[in-house]
Every structure is written in structure tokens, then in C-alpha cells.
Amino acid sequence: LMIKCKACSISDKTISQVLGYNHFVESYFVGIANDEEFLTYWYDMQSEQYKAVKFLPRFDDLLKAVKNESK
User: Which of 1, 7, 20, 56 is the least crowded, having the fewest Cβ atoms under 10 Å away?
Assistant: First the structure.
């Protein structure tokens, strides 16, 4: 899980920048946070695109998702 904390609002440019970082880091999950919101992204292999939720999932849910992805 890679998390990027921002002092400003989370814009499309911010999201693209952080997902671009992840191209090199290759984290299963990417979190983007500021003082008002938290977004969690992951790459869905079936749809070949990033998906997101507006919260930080529980640790055990993140582990389950990683285990299911590696099968």
C-alpha cells in the first residue's frame, strides 16, 4: 500500500500523478489523502483499468484482495 498525502484538493491531475508513480513502485494499492478525503485505488486485471473506493479498506480486506489476485 503506497499512500500519498496532499495539502491541496485531490484533482484528476493528482490522481494521474500518483498512479504514474505506481507504474514504477508496483504497489497493489494506492491511497491518496488530504484533510477531507481518502481514495484507495487498485488495478483490476480483468477490466484492465484502475478502480477506486472513497475510503481506506480494512487491512484484512486488502490482504484478501491480494490473495485472490495472485490465484
Answer: 7
